[in-house]
Design brief:
Helices cover 30% and strands 30% of the residues. The protein is built from ten helices and 15 strands. α8 packs antiparallel against α9. The longest helix has 15 residues. Bound molecules: 3-phenylpyruvic acid.
């Protein structure tokens, strides 16, 4: 039974995602995304489940930055989890008593309209996770009056739900990933995603366009691109890419080697089945058979047989 670290404590969305991706795994709650990934890196856990992006708020940047640096980890699975937020208080607290609200930054930003409408004067403070906020609010001496967290966290920490489904949109989805130290890749399924990070070799006009071109000319569709600061000064960025397909497929493998040739460093972050099971539509000339036929043709040319 694998042991998987996750952003705890019990009751986070991350735990719900972990239960979907690995129902039988032993769970190791951690205080932060960094701590969960470190547990996977050190061998304290066999892997970790962490949030990567949200359909409303975008990237969970701590995860992007952690995966780009330090000991490499590979993504082996993803989960799309619909997220619904509740306003949770200690029993007996009424709306007018709420002066300080506590929650994970991604939850706070997704409940902006509700907070502006219902609690315009409340101070809103960032917590390490939604369930950490609920746990804190449940302690009698807490300086916080309410937490924004999954309803299940309210049950777990004996809180009362004063508002349910308080997110600005009711179709919000968060994408979580399972990562582990490098090892055999999941087999291609025909509906896969490949994640990677690329660092520019030198800054020049069209540098990003050249990177994108490596995907475009091989018919590889991108599902996410993100620039993140390297930390080495203003204007210095590296890039995260999610692409349709598996590195074992010719067009994806070729695009990655092209990117490798023109980048300072490419860090491969994994090829794994897409949670939505959507297969890419391949343009004529970009299928595996097309690449194989072209390689055979080139071999004939080189052998003087064309
Ligand atoms: O804090 C949690 O419960 C998490 O899993 C992180 C998070 C927070 C808000 C939306 C999605 C994920």
């Amino acid at each position: 039974m694998p042991k998987l670290a996750y952003l705890g404590p019990e009751g986070t969305f991350c735990e719900a995602a972990l239960r979907i991706v690995a129902p039988d795994a032993e769970r190791l709650p951690c205080a932060s995304v960094t701590a969960a990934l470190d547990a996977a890196r050190s061998g304290e856990a066999d892997g970790a489940v962490v949030p990567l992006e949200n359909s409303v708020e975008g990237a969970i940047t701590v995860t992007l930055d952690e995966l780009a640096r330090g000991r490499p980890l590979l993504i082996s699975a993803e989960v799309l989890l619909p997220v619904e937020f509740s306003l949770l208080v200690r029993p007996g607290t009424a709306m007018p008593h709420i002066k300080r609200v506590y929650s994970h930054p991604a939850a706070i930003t997704q409940c902006r309209n509700y907070l502006a409408r219902e609690l315009p004067d409340a101070v809103v403070v960032a917590a390490p996770s939604t369930a950490a906020a609920a746990q804190e609010v449940s302690s009698p001496g807490s300086p916080y009056d309410a937490a924004i967290a999954p309803a299940i966290a309210g049950e777990h920490y004996n809180l009362t739900e004063l508002g349910s489904n308080i997110g600005d949109r009711d179709d919000t989805v968060t994408r979580f990933i399972r990562v582990s130290p490098p090892g055999p890749l999941p087999e291609p399924t025909g509906a896969d995603r490949t994640s990677l990070v690329a660092f520019l070799r030198d800054d020049h006009p069209g540098a990003l366009l050249e990177m994108l071109n490596e995907f475009a000319v091989r018919g590889v569709n991108l599902t996410r691109i993100e620039s993140r600061p390297t930390g080495d000064g203003i204007g210095r960025y590296f890039f995260h890419f999610d692409a349709e397909g598996h590195v074992a497929e010719a067009r994806v493998g070729d695009a990655l080697s092209g990117l490798h040739r023109l980048s300072d460093e490419v860090r491969f972050l994994g090829s794994y089945p897409r949670a939505d099971r959507i297969s890419p539509e391949l343009k004529r000339g970009t299928t595996g058979a097309d690449f194989a036929e072209a390689a055979e043709w080139l071999a004939r040319v080189r052998a003087g047989r064309a």
